[in-house]
Specification:
The complex is a heterodimer of chains A (about 675) and B (about 270). Chain A is an alpha/beta fold and about 675 residues long. Chain A has 25 helices and ten strands. In chain A, strands 4, 7, 8, 9 and 10 form a five-stranded mixed sheet that branches. A three-stranded parallel sheet of chain A has the order 2-1-3. Chain B is globular and about 75 Å long. Classes of the chains: A alpha/beta (about 675), B mainly alpha (about 270). At the A-B interface, helix 1, helix 3, helix 4, helix 5 and helix 6 of A face helix 1, helix 3, helix 4, helix 5 and helix 7 of B.
Chain lengths: ~675, ~270
């Protein structure tokens, strides 16, 4: 019995630690895929320490954790003493208030705080940038406070209340009696509560994710962004180091506690006060250190005299210096030393739109696609550009300024083109029979490739694919046609592995999925890392030809700096260097001179004119139609289609039913027993 | 004077909690009954909830199953830890807690790496010449992800309860002629009930509202309510997202209420 229990426990620990082992091993891998170990290297660790952005994020997380813990401990301890002395009924009410953030799911807490901040900050006080450092700190204090209260309260209960009375009788002021008697007694509770608040804050993802703006990002939230695209292996190195650090801290803490326990037992009277004093000193030292770090970095943060320019771009859509490309942002900052660029990414036009529409954040430069620019102009979300500040606009090809092709902004007022390209099908030649491509977009519905098909996760592109397939116009406003598309998209659900945007990279590159509709430039990038991949444009049915262009949204705070950035990006040499990395076509012909030859000549990047002629642009749709499309797509994504009678589901339901019945029966019987016992008494 | 002091000391805290826990819930309710475009009062969002009931049902189902599995896996472990020596107890407790402090996003991603069709386990099977298994993107994978992530939340409260059980009670039962099975049934198990209920609540609540695990380990058809809320909230219908989170909140409060009723009233609280 005991033996089996031991083996079982060991197995559970293996289960708990296996994924961590995978991550630790991945940190020494020369390849970037965690599923295949290609060779041993320490390179990732070197890269980690060279990556200032990542270290800054870690610093941000520490800063918010230290500050929120300090506030929690201060406010919480005082409050606990107060609550302890309240009348019982009042105390109960306050304690149930304390329990709200503990019982509420994190996602609800996050959403409620985010709505509060946007509602009060932006709608009532008119501050566009209401999701900032301060509000994040408030959120962390709010979920940390209950931990302090719940740990200090029991210590107060245990304390003999006559002790403070005695102290006061002996002439202590209430203040003195608190510091001399109460505080030492409840110290262990404060420390445990503080440590809990600290770890919760440091590792919090869900609440922060909803409350965070662009100003101040913490590490777990950024890791989420990473896990949605190709994750850089240095993250694994950081994970390993953090793991070792926390492991070491925990072991040290345990050993210290054990030793003091032992000492206490051996020579109680003498060493008791001594070890307590040491403990107190260590605590005070740590608190002081935390305070200094907190205040120091806080002051450092607020005393920045550079202009902060918030650039919000598609994921994987700017050269970042990896693979011998130019680090565009670093180059811009070098040329404009007074500007500090803060760069963040979105993964679809719709995500960008919602982020701005939902409010609470400010950004200065965005790069939406044509149809979204038209929608934003229509809804007054963009500022007119001052072209005097963008002299490089002269290099942009005439065709991109021609009102006939530039239907999204015919007057040339709001946007400077960044890239253009097509949407086609990426497929893995190893598994996909090229003859099947004759079905055009229909191959994405082919049962033969069920579970190996990825579908694009944004409304307009997804509807576009259905519309090309059904032979409708992609700019239709006809309600019945939209509904027919919804049916088509729902039908596809049973063969789709996942709906993806940036996650497409890993999944296609490692062969987990074989077919996906996506953008040409990203396809080039993927083909680069997996030579089995190829790109196909269904010319007969039609495909989307898009332009992405740089704009300044109406919430921007640094318009002039934003225009300098746009001008910089429109320099042919910079544009060419940028395309080398992102593999899209530049709207500036001259940029080709600065691009690598294979890209400038690639038919995927620059399709021949006769192919281009078969593509169509997504045009402006009236607001109601855009909204309806968004809603319908959400419905496709979120609701269950044709609840299938899959055997998996049936088995699952049977198991579930049995377990539920067993659980209820068990609970009822134990409840009945308890009642019986009570009545017997 | 003492009473005044008590109120004075606790007022800042009470105000803080009112402003940042109770009022935000009011704001959520406000968004739930307003139109996303016009901002006018509407019941449309609530009417649309019906569409998402199957998703909610699935979330509840998966979470109940994972809570039960967590209990079945966690109880023996907690029992084992509680019966070690002092030092071993401390170390094992720490080892259970450690994974909770590491990014759950990365750990879940590592599971995906293990379970994928082209993942570590299947690569390994391939090397041995065995047929590959279909593991990822099944309900089982999602439930496993939940069990993995929330198992410590079950073990820790169970351990805290079991370790407090008075050994003399067990000895007494043995002296009175109970078999080990009977001792477990009649003494240990009933006395660990509070831990069981706390554990179930602590697994159920985060599991029912999770939004990352199913995105990584599930398929297009295993969306959970958390995923849907996130999608609406980050997409452009915060109002429907708010309505759905209200439903989720009510559900969780009802469930924890029931659990608290079953569990013992004394110091239920948190036992992390």
């Amino acid at each position: 019995m005991k033996r089996t229990n031991r083996i079982f426990t060991v197995l559970i620990f293996i289960f708990l630690y296996i994924p961590m082992a995978v991550l630790v091993v991945a940190s020494f891998n020369t390849g970037k895929n965690i599923t295949v170990f290609e060779g041993f290297t320490l390179r990732q660790y070197a890269e980690l320490f060279r990556d200032e952005d990542l270290l800054a994020l870690l610093g941000n997380s520490l800063l918010i954790a230290v500050l929120s813990t300090l506030i929690c401990v201060g406010l919480g301890t005082v409050a606990a003493v107060g609550i302890h002395n309240l009348k019982p009924r009042m105390r109960k009410a306050v304690m149930s208030l304390t329990n709200i953030p503990m019982t509420n799911p994190d996602i609800v807490t996050g959403i409620s705080l985010s709505l509060l901040f946007v509602f009060v900050g932006s709608k009532m006080m008119g501050n566009d940038n209401s999701l900032n450092f301060g509000t994040l700190l408030i959120a962390h204090v709010t979920f940390g406070l209950p931990y302090v209260i719940l740990n200090v309260m029991p210590k107060l209960h245990q304390m003999d209340s006559s002790l403070t009375d005695a102290a006061m009788d002996l002439g202590c002021t209430p203040m003195q009696s608190f510091f001399k008697v109460t505080l030492p007694e409840i110290m262990p509770g404060i420390v445990t509560g503080g440590i809990m608040a600290f770890t919760m804050s440091l590792d919090d993802f869900v609440i922060s994710y909803f409350v965070i703006g662009f100003d101040f990002v913490t590490l777990p939230v950024e890791i989420y962004t990473y896990t949605r695209k190709a994750i850089p292996p240095k993250i694994y190195a950081m994970f390993t180091l953090l793991f070792l650090l926390i492991f070491g801290l925990m072991v040290a803490m345990n050993l210290m506690q054990l030793r003091s326990d032992r000492q206490k037992r051996s020579k109680r009277a003498v060493s008791d006060s001594k070890s307590k004093r040491i403990f107190k000193r260590v605590c005070a030292g740590l608190a002081a250190l935390a305070l200094v770090i907190g205040l120091g970095s806080f002051i450092g943060m607020t005393r920045q005299d550079k202009t902060v320019l918030n650039v919000y771009n598609w994921g994987m859509n700017i050269a970042d210096g990896s693979d011998d490309t130019m680090d565009i942002i670093a180059e811009f900052e070098r040329q404009n030393p007074d500007i500090d660029v803060r760069y963040s990414t979105y993964d679809s036009n719709e995500a960008l739109y919602s982020k701005l529409k939902n409010g609470g954040v400010t950004v200065d430069v965005i790069i939406p696609s044509d149809y979204m620019i038209a929608r934003m102009i229509d809804e007054g979300m963009l500022l007119e550009l001052n072209f005097d500040n963008i002299p490089n606009y002269q290099y942009v090809d005439e065709i991109f300024k021609d009102p006939n092709t530039r239907t999204y902004d015919p007057e040339n007022k709001y946007a400077v083109p960044y890239t253009w390209g097509t949407v086609g099908i990426i497929y893995n030649t190893k598994y996909v029979d090229e003859a099947d491509l004759a079905q055009g977009w229909g191959i994405l519905w082919d049962e033969k490739y069920a579970d190996k098909i990825l579908m694009i996760d944004n409304a307009r592109d997804a509807f576009g694919i259905a519309q090309y397939l059904l032979g409708y116009s992609v700019n239709t406003t006809d309600h019945d046609e939209l509904l027919a598309c919804v049916e088509k998209l729902k039908e596809q659900k049973s063969v789709v592995q996942q709906y993806v945007m940036d996650q497409i990279y890993t999944t296609m590159e490692n062969g987990e999925a074989w077919l996906a509709p996506y953008y040409a430039g990203d396809a080039m990038l993927m083909m680069d890392s997996n030579p089995d991949l190829a790109f196909y444009l269904p010319q007969d049915q039609g495909f989307n030809l898009f332009t992405d262009a740089m704009c300044i949204p109406s919430c921007a705070q640094e318009k002039e700096a934003a225009e300098r950035f746009i001008n910089f990006m429109t320099d042919p040499e910079i544009s060419g260097a940028n395309m080398d990395y992102i593999c899209y076509a530049s709207p500036i012909s001259e940029a080709k001179n600065y691009m690598e030859e294979y890209l400038a000549e690639s038919e995927v990047v620059y399709p021949p004119t006769e192919v281009q002629a078969k593509g169509t642009a997504f045009n402006f749709l009236p607001e109601e139609v855009s909204r309806e499309m968004d809603q319908l797509f959400m419905e496709v994504r979120s609701t269950d289609t044709a609840e299938g009678g899959g055997t998996e589901d049936v088995i699952f339901l049977i198991v579930l039913g049995a377990l539920a019945v067993a659980g209820v029966a068990f609970s009822v019987s134990s409840f009945v027993k308890k009642v019986k016992r009570k009545t017997k008494k | 004077m003492k009473k005044n002091n008590a109120i004075l000391l606790s007022t800042p805290y009470i105000l803080w909690m009112l402003a940042f826990t109770l009022i935000p819930l009011g704001v959520v309710a406000y968004y739930a009954v307003t139109d996303p475009v016009t901002g006018a009062f509407t019941l449309d969002n609530l009417a649309q909830l019906r569409l998402y009931m199957p998703v909610l049902g699935r979330s509840v189902g998966y979470s109940i199953v994972s809570a039960i599995i967590c209990l079945l896996l966690g109880y023996p472990v907690a029992y084992y830890i509680a019966h070690r020596g002092k030092v071993a107890q401390k170390m094992l407790y720490m080892l259970v807690m450690l994974p909770m402090c590491m990014s759950f996003l990365l750990r879940t991603l590592a599971w995906k790496g293990l379970l994928d069709d082209t993942g570590i386990i299947n690569n390994f099977l391939g090397l041995l010449g065995l047929p590959t298994l279909r593991m990822v993107r099944t309900p089982g994978a999602v439930i496993m992800g939940m069990v993995y992530n929330y198992l410590p939340y079950m073990i820790l409260p169970l351990y805290s309860t079991i370790v407090k059980i008075d050994r003399r009670l067990i000895e007494a039962a043995e002296d009175l002629g109970c078999t080990p099975v009977q001792v477990f049934q009649k003494v240990t198990l009933p006395l660990s009930m509070p831990g069981i209920f706390t554990g179930i609540t602590m697994v159920f609540v985060p599991a029912v509202s999770t939004f990352y695990i199913s995105q990584k380990l599930g398929s297009a058809d295993t969306s959970l309510i958390g995923d849907v809320i996130e999608r609406f909230f980050k997409g452009n219908n915060m109002n429907l997202g708010a309505a759905l989170s209200l439903v989720l909140m009510v559900l969780v409060f009802v469930c924890t209420g029931i659990m608290n009723r079953f569990g013992d009233d004394e110091e239920g609280g948190v036992v992390v």
